[in-house]
Automatic annotation (TrEMBL):
The keyword Transmembrane helix applies. The chain crosses the membrane at residues 29-53, 73-98, 119-142, 162-184, 196-217, 223-241. The lineage of its organism: Bacteria, Pseudomonadati, Pseudomonadota, Alphaproteobacteria, Sphingomonadales. InterPro entries: Rce1/LyrA-like_dom. It is an enzyme of class 3 (hydrolase). It comes from the Bacteria. This is CPBP family intramembrane glutamic endopeptidase. It comes from Sphingorhabdus arenilitoris. Pfam families: Rce1-like. Its EC number is 3.4.-.-. Residues 164-258 form the CAAX prenyl protease 2/Lysostaphin resistance protein A-like domain.
Length: 267
């Protein structure tokens, strides 16, 4: 009897006799935790160092609200810390995934299993549905809200130079989509698929993806951002499922974030 190793890999399993199915749920959560711990740690170090160097430490300790009123002091250190921490995370993750055929297992090394036109049509449809929901949500369900307002304030505080614009683009439109697709679709969604029906796995991974975008350090937790980001995460998860290609999701996520960033610049 012959064993089709390729089909085993495409089903999200390791080749026979390779041990437990990959990716595992614990491994997926460990990488997600590493992602956020590095971001938070790097941001704290960068911001604290900048505040100390500015000579305004005592003033800001006595009145921390000054930072939220004027984020120009911490904007660039925060962006640099995110770029550096994301590059470190991505580097470590790629070293890990490059071993034992893991990139094949999470379907990074192949393009869509559908033909080009069907892939484009489905990709446009799922993102259009997600963006349509976001519009309805922000205009009619909770009118006047600004999704991730704190993040937008941070971006607005960045000095308007070509270099800073490029740096922000690298972080928001390239590093974030690549890492999020590897973590939430390539690892987490696949891990959940071993334990529940695929559409439940899409929903759960999208929910965790959405919770990861909540600013847990804000005075008022912005849980109202959960539904639109959940829908976007589910759209990417569905696209990943039907195309069988993580590359396709990464490209679409990059396009989505690039468009959002351009709209933000022009608003």
């Amino acid at each position: 009897m012959t064993i089709d190793v390729r089909n085993s890999i495409m089903d999200g399993q390791q080749a026979p006799n390779a041990g437990k199915p990959f990716p595992g749920l614990l491994v997926s959560f460990i990488w997600i935790v590493i992602f956020f711990v590095l971001q938070i740690t790097a941001s704290i170090i960068a911001v604290a160092s900048t505040i100390l160097a500015s000579g305004r430490a005592n003033e800001l300790v006595k009145n921390p609200e000054l930072l939220s009123q004027d984020m120009s002091l911490i904007a660039m250190p925060t962006i640099w810390s995110l770029v550096i921490s994301n590059l470190i995370t991505l580097g470590m993750l790629m070293v890990y995934l490059a071993q034992k055929g893991r990139l094949d297992i999470i379907r990074f090394n192949n393009w869509s299993e559908l033909n080009f036109s069907r892939t484009i049509i489905i990709g446009v449809m799922v993102v259009a549905i997600a963006l349509g929901f976001n519009y309805i949500y922000s205009e009619f369900i909770i009118p006047g809200i600004e999704l991730q307002a704190d993040l937008k304030m941070l971006f607005d505080a960045i000095p308007d130079t070509l270099f800073n614009t490029i740096l922000l683009f690298i972080m928001v439109a390239i590093l974030a989509p690549v890492l999020e697709e590897f973590l939430f679709r390539g690892l987490l969604q696949n891990a959940l698929k071993h334990r529940m029906p695929v559409y439940a796995a899409i929903a759960v991974s999208a929910a965790i993806f959405s919770l990861a975008h909540v600013n847990w350090f804000a005075a008022d937790l912005e849980f109202y951002i959960f539904p639109p980001i959940f829908i976007l995460g589910a759209a990417f998860g569905y696209l990943y499922h039907v195309t069988g290609s993580l590359r396709t999701c990464i490209i679409l996520h990059i396009i989505n974030n690039s468009a959002a960033l351009l709209i933000g610049f022009n608003s």
